[in-house]
Amino acid sequence: MLIIAFLPGDGVGPEVAGAARRVLETLADAEGMTLAFRDCLFGGAAIDAAGDPFPAETRQACAAADAVFLGAVGGPKWDGGAVRPEKGLLDLRKSLGVFANLRPIRIEPGMEARAPLTPERVKGVDMLIVRELTGGVYFGDREEGTERASDLCVYTREEVERVARIAFEAARERKGKVTSVDKANVMATSRLWRAAVTALHEKEFGDVALEHMLVDAMAMKLIQAPAAYDVILTENMFGDILSDEASVLSGSIGLAPSASLGAGKAGLYEPIHGSAPDIAGQGKANPVGAVMSAAMMVRHSFGNDAAARKIERAVSAALAAGRGTADIGGPDDTRSFADDICARLEG
Ligand code: NAD
Ligand code: IPM
Ligand code: MN
Which of 27, 54, 78, 112 has the greatest number of C-beta atoms within 10 Å? Predict the structure, then answer.
């Protein structure tokens, strides 16, 4: 039996996580897999119920699970509160030790004409952003004040090496190229980043092509020549920003999944988007980012590549058939889109 700690969270989180859960249940029925979902309070919903975005019971359930599945957290309701829902997410990532956040971005066949950029521009887009997830400015000491504030950005060589290793290994299975992104013309952490990535490359990954790029230029190149990139390796905050930007290449942020991995098999799976307060509760949220995150869970934490592919093929087929929510110009609501994906899995 595979145990999934299930954290729907806030806003569209429960809508997209619910869709992913139905897809997983459909898959489990077809494959004879036994999945057990442990429902957990998390984020703003947990602040409301327990005064804590990451309550002890949720912490225990996540630690004991084979994988953690998250919808999204946050929203205006909790702005200005004593503790933010997002703090729970940072604590969850840290407590699971998931230092490598994999965010694949590709253009599905037939989606070229439905994406915001021109079809010529997005043709051939197939990249993997490897974002460092448990270090950098997200986790440095903070001083909060009305006249002065500071956020400390710290990286150690070991933190850089372990995430770079994941990127190089992924490139070996893909197109063999890593673009490491930093701000080495300004930041000390970026100069350490660049030196550590270069040294690891020389020592262990000479067969992989490595280039370095400054983050401002990368933001431009991502739009100008997105098909030129394979694996993009970068630190926590740059990866956060570049992955939202890159998601537009695929059609919508609602399509983008992620897997956050550490040393073991357990992982955290979540779409890259947030709680989308502007569309929450209206059935408008695209469930594909969550559904594809579930496929990543089946692959990485359950070790079942064939079953993961079934989910991915069902999603590809649904998109190729013109299905989808309004963000990609489709006719569906969240539920009817997920129903269609489930039907393709069964059929
Ligand atoms: P957001 O990602 O929630 O939304 C940005 C835009 O993308 C909105 O217009 C939204 O409608 C659209 N969008 C997002 N998901 C979509 C989907 N599945 N289908 C269709 N459209 C979608 O970012 P935001 O508005 O800046 O943040 C809202 C809240 O979410 C904030 O509190 C933020 O901290 C939080 N957040 C949480 C996570 C997470 O839980 N992993 C990630 C990002 C932001
Ligand atoms: C993401 C989100 C989070 C992040 C926030 C909600 C803390 O934007 O998962 O991309 O910045 O990592
Ligand atoms: Mn983000």
Answer: 54
Residue 347 has pLDDT above 90, yes or no: no
Query: For 192-201, what is the mean pLDDT?
Result: 99
Confirm if 157 and 191 have CB atoms less than 8 A apart: no
Question: Which residues crowd ion ligand 3, with CB under 5 Å?
Answer: 240
Q: How many CB atoms lie within 10 A of CB 245?
A: 16
Q: What residues form DSSP beta bridges with 233? A: 130, 180
CB distance 240 to ligand 2 below 6 Å:
yes
For residue 29, the CA-to-ligand 1 centroid distance in Å is 31
Alpha-carbon 242 to chain mean position: 12
Taking CA atoms only, the protein residue closest to ligand 1 atom 16 is 254
112-250 to CATH, choices 3.40.50.20, 3.40.50.11740, 3.40.718.10, 3.40.50.11010:
3.40.718.10
Flag whether pLDDT at 195 surpasses 90: yes
Q: What percent of the chain has pLDDT over 70?
A: 100
Q: For residue 183, give the 3-state DSSP assignment.
A: coil
Question: Domain 1-98+255-347 is in which class?
Answer: alpha beta
Q: How many CA atoms lie within 13 A of 126 on its CB side?
A: 10
pLDDT at 266 over 90: no
Residues with a catalytic annotation lie at 138, 183, 216, 240, 244
User: Range(s) for CATH 3.40.718.10 in the chain?
Assistant: 1-98+255-347, 112-250
Q: Which of 275, 279, 323, 334 maximizes ligand 1 atoms within 8 Å of its Cβ, making it the mutation to test the pocket?
A: 275
The residue contributing the CA closest to ligand 2 atom 4 is 240
